[in-house]
């Protein structure tokens, strides 16, 4: 039990980071992580150690997030006044680019967003991310490709050919 809880505790920062990126709401993300931890502890008997605990936890979090989105759609969407952006210019061009990228990521379909965040934000290998999302690796790669292409289009960062410098 102690080893399980120690392992669980090590993965909390990664779970919080992923949940915040998925929800873009600190409170909802914290609730999602708490629900994930509660479910993992309550069902630790179902965990079959064939590898690290982390992918199992990410699978739980991903499934809870999907369930939450389904129930939110049935209830209708509430607008959080605290997250409404005002028309104030950002102090730096870099901040603008990050805000633009964050908005573009939000427009991605959920399946593409999950794949992109697991691979780019969490740095998971394609095989690990595919296992968490319960899809073949090829499907994960095509979702990533579509997500990246959409982001390039939405942010105006179309792929440009690399120029070689001649010495």
Quick recap of the structure?
One of its GO terms (biological process) is DNA-templated transcription initiation. This protein is an all-alpha fold. The chain has helices at about 1-25, 25-40, 55-75, 95-105, 110-120, 125-135, 135-155.
Helix-residue proportion:
55-70%
CATH architecture verdict of the largest domain: Orthogonal Bundle
How many helices? 7
User: Biggest β-sheet: count, sense, barrel?
Assistant: none
Instruction: List SSEs in N-to-C order.
Output: HHHHHHH
Described by its quaternary structure, the protein is single chain
Q: What is the CATH class name of the largest domain?
A: Mainly Alpha
Strand content: under 5%
The general outline is globular
Number of strands: 0
Q: What integer value in Å does the Rg equal?
A: 18 Å
Structural class: mainly alpha
Compute the separation of the termini in Å. Answer: 62 Å
Unreliable residue runs: 160-167
CATH 4th-level superfamily of the largest domain: RNA polymerase sigma factor, region 2, helix turn helix motif
CATH topology of the largest domain: Rna Polymerase Sigma Factor, Chain: A
Integer average pLDDT: 82
Integer count of domains: 2
Pfam family, one: Sigma70_r4_2
Keywords: Coiled coil, Sigma factor, Transcription, Transcription regulation
Protein name: Sigma-70 family RNA polymerase sigma factor
Organism: Devosia aurantiaca
């Amino acid at each position: 039990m102690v080893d399980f809880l120690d392992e669980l505790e090590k993965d909390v920062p990664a779970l919080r980071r992923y949940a915040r990126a998925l929800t873009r709401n600190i409170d909802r993300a914290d609730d999602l992580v708490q629900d994930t931890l509660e479910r993992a502890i309550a069902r630790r008997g179902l965990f079959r150690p064939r590898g690290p605990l982390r992918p199992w936890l990410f699978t739980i979090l991903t499934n809870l997030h999907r369930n939450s989105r389904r129930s939110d759609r049935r209830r209708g969407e509430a607008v959080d006044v605290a997250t409404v952006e005002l028309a104030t210019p950002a102090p730096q061009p870099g901040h603008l680019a990050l805000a633009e990228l964050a908005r573009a990521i939000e427009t991605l379909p959920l399946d593409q967003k999950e794949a992109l965040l697991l691979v780019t934000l969490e740095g998971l290998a394609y095989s690990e991310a595919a296992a968490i999302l319960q899809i073949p690796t090829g499907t994960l790669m095509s979702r990533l490709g579509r997500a990246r292409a959409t982001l390039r289009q939405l942010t105006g960062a179309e792929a440009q050919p690399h120029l070689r410098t001649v010495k």
